[in-house]
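Hey L., structure's done. Input below.
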Amino acid sequence: MRNKSKFALSSSPVRQAQGRLWRGSIHLVLALVLLLLLACGDTTTEVVTQTVPNNIEIVDEESVLPECTEDNEGEQVLVKGENVARTCIDGDWTAAFTSGRDTVYLKSKDISCYTAELADKQGVKVICDGDSVGVLHNGGAGAKGDKGDAGTGCSLVPLDSVTMRLFCGDDSITVYLKAKTDTSLNIDAERIPVTLDSLTGIVQKGPFLKGGTVTLYELHDGSTLEKTGKFYLTEILDDNGNYKFPKMELASQYALISAKGYYLNEVTGEKSSEPVELNALVNLLERKTVNINVLTHLEVDRVNYLVVHKGTLFSQAKKQARSEILKEIRVGESDVGNFETLDVFAKVEDGSTALLALSVLLLIDSGEKNLLESLQKIINDVNNGTEVGATFWAHVADGTADADLAWQFDAIRKNLEKWKTSKTVLDFEKLLRFFWHQELGVGACSAAREGEVVAVSNENSAKFGTTFRFICRSGYWHEALDIEKDTYGIPCTPERQSTTMRGLVIPTNNYFCSENEWGLLWNWDVSKENFLNPRIKYDIMVDERDRKAYRIVKVGGQVWMAENLNYSDSIKMPDLGVCYDDIAKNCELIGRLYDENSVNDVCPNGWHLPDTTEWNTLFDAVGGAASAGRMLKSIGGWVYFNLLTERGVDSVGFAVLPTVFRSNWPSEALFWSATKYTGENDSLLDHSHYVFFSTGDRVSFKITSEQVRYSVRCIQD
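Output:
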């Protein structure tokens, strides 16, 4: 009887036991013919012949073989009396083929090829890197087969550095190790039946929710990737996206797995408003766990295109697709391994970080409704051999930078921490920042660039136009205030004291120089951030009622809002707070003005209206009420009679802005307290004290019985 072939993957003991032929260059080419003669009855006959090129060294006996080292790795030597040449591999002279085997193993670079007997013993197939590239039929048990005469064996012959040829009888197949195959190959027998006791995995956009569906479609083979019509269906088991298929019997090792369902949105922290479908294309001989995510989804169409339209081997198509997709999505990772092994909740920093970064990136830019459209655009452009349009990525970078500036990354991290299945959340922020820094052309914010002001150099940026500037502070890019970009490179020196200048970037802005600081003259058209102290590191508080964000600052053990409250409820309390001069944009700058009947309950949950005792604690922290006005007022905006004496120095970042304007000059700021009058003047009873900032240094408490509206600063409970 003929020796049986043993089919195995690259890690199997059978293949490891076989000799290996390394072909790194033309001079290593060795024509080896292993004739496996089929015999009838109980007799087995094997004949090995060899053709030895002139450049193969021949030695008399094994004892005189030269030492096998790194210097001669891959070289071949023939020992007289032996049927095969030996190859220098890993310090040993190893026979290229082992007698008694009818499987031939060849390795070139990272592609391994060998032959394996068909299950029906009617011939052999050649397998390269796990994929069958063709079949040659040769009748079993000595009978005449479809190709070759009765009893004719098969041989594998290297031709050059990129090709080999499989001979069976009079017919042969050329195998191109760069993923090309003859169009005349019989691919039908490429299918390898697979029986799985189970198949598990995770579905993630954010994590898919319980009840979503996962469908496995059996594919005919790895060359057409056509569905056979047979499929299996299961459900997602929990809100972490886990799924499991029970035992399955498949006619092919290739499968398309499709998941559809709702998911947790990393950006909003909520369940997605509509379901999404993500896919994965896999060889089930390689793994029994398949994770499905946005990267596997991107990979499916590209692999299909390379296999079906370009004739690329499945494994090589997967590898090429991974490389092309990672290059295209620009998240700073060049090799993350197989996409179906990645997990956004992985316990260590690896390729999964790129998956998490991309998942967040697409939601920040596209939102749920346009998610698949963005994915398809990337797929189409990769298949067309072109990069996704510069305008597209600039738009994505705009959205990502905007989210970073608005502290949205922190909120996303908190969402992930609520859902995490590991102790830590991967550092997706690093890759997102790398992406938008590079795409917008600002580079990294390093210690050497502290205080540097830069413009976006990407002309396709729609959000960060000609008047926008970034400033580098403490390792992060921030939006530069008008005063920072308008005066960058022009210090307020003693020689410039009491002088004014127009803005370098926004010429409608005007600045004055005093006490070595530039101050912005009042301008309703600028944002409130321009009157904050750029040297203060503020924290952020978000009002859950309307999602408005406020900068907060700690002073003397108290935590205060560094901005005036701007909350209203048009439904429950339509008259709650008004804008100065009834102009809506004025509210964005100085907040709303409230009457004393509504102020006690106007602060958000966890905050309250300060009483006079709490105000006095604030004043004491900056030297007392006599100087608190000057110490707490904003650097810019305060101009009445004298540029030198009326401005504030904002020593702690409290940034009091003027809210009263005398003859259009900003001159006063008034804030409610929670303390009621308890004196002897009956007309003032039940009225609240308010805090009075004016053009001088002093701050004081006042009280009035008139119907007035003042500003509100909230203090943390």
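Residues 328 and 387 are 7 Å apart (CA to CA). The two ends are 89 Å apart (CA to CA).

-- N.
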